Amino acid sequence: MIELTHISKVYEGPNRVEALKDISLSVKEGEIFGVIGQSGAGKSTLIRCINMLERPTSGQVVVDGVDLTKLNDKDLREQRKNIGMIFQHFNLLSSRTVYDNVAFPLELQGLSKAEIKERILPILDIVKLSDRLNNYPSQLSGGQKQRVGIARALASNPKVLLCDEATSALDPQTTKSILELLKDINEKLKLTIVLITHEMQVIKEICDRVAVIEGGVILEEGPVVDVFTGPKEKTTKEFVSAIISHKLPEEAWRHLNVQSEWQEGLHPIIRLNFTGDVVDEPIVAGMIRRFGLDVSILFGGVDYIQDTSFGHLIVVLDGERANEERGIQYLKDLPIGSEVIGYVATNH
Ligand SMILES: Nc1ncnc2c1ncn2[C@@H]1O[C@H](COP(=O)(O)OP(=O)(O)OP(=O)(O)O)[C@@H](O)[C@H]1O
């Protein structure tokens, strides 16, 4: 649905900034694609290139089969009806009611009052604002204002919705309800959604795939579950660790006096990561039964990334060294992630 090919964006001026450097991305029809990055990474520039609010310095932007970089202003305006956008600070007109804010883009397109009404009443129903039609933005909560923004974006029946930090100004509870609404319209209206955010929680809640951007470059991208369970780049690891702690807390690490070499009398500490149904397998019981090992659990938990369970466990294997080595091999042969992260003395 969206193909970005070799996109670069340079802001010329006394402080020349290369905001995007040769970015290529592909977003499939009907998916929710998230771009995450820290402040200044290039997220806003990237999302604004998709509807050409920013014109890329070079590269191609194809949305629904049309190369937007080749269009004149009139054709671009026409194609933009396919691409709705919502913003962090909602960008509503304060002198217009909820109804009139949502009607505004359709008025600009020259639709009649009756056509507008027919188009937007069902949308106001989807975003649950039917009882607020005559309120002004100042009379609404942040979440309600964003619902107006969403309804206005949907008014033109777009195929793509761009969300520019759409929940960053909202509290966690309201964020959750807006994300649920986005998921809902993605499913009901088969809308392709691209969102940018600096919050991993947003990616975790609703995205199918994610790209991590830093310094105008995509560091890595893939299905959310894959990126969460196997982050490759340092920045990605930091984002992931903000919501999933794979690590033993620092204090516990010190208290245990963890060593990096497997010396006499020490036992391996192992980190296990597992996704999906495998979490239900009796892995710990297997190690006890097969190799006569004592398995102490130091740390662990199960997270859910949408419908996929993602477990992590840090354990110490304690037994004869040969059996400990067999246990490590047994784990390696299972369809889970396992890594020896240090060695400790136990009380036995
Ligand atoms: N209109 C502009 N003129 C000059 N430089 C700009 C302009 N817009 C953005 N930049 C620069 O481009 C780089 C990327 O900015 P961008 O706003 O895309 O990042 P971001 O990831 O969205 O950050 P934030 O979350 O803080 O908005 C930054 O160095 C920024 O200062």
UniProtKB/TrEMBL annotation:
Keyword line: Amino-acid transport, ATP-binding, Cell membrane, Hydrolase, Membrane, Nucleotide-binding, Translocase, Transport
Record has ATP-binding as a keyword: yes
Domain ABC transporter: 2-240
EC number(s) per entry: 3.6.3.-
Family membership: Belongs to the ABC transporter superfamily.
PANTHER family, sorted: AMINO ACID IMPORT ATP-BINDING PROTEIN, METHIONINE IMPORT ATP-BINDING PROTEIN METN
Protein name: Methionine import ATP-binding protein MetN
Species of provenance: Veillonella criceti
Gene field: metN_2
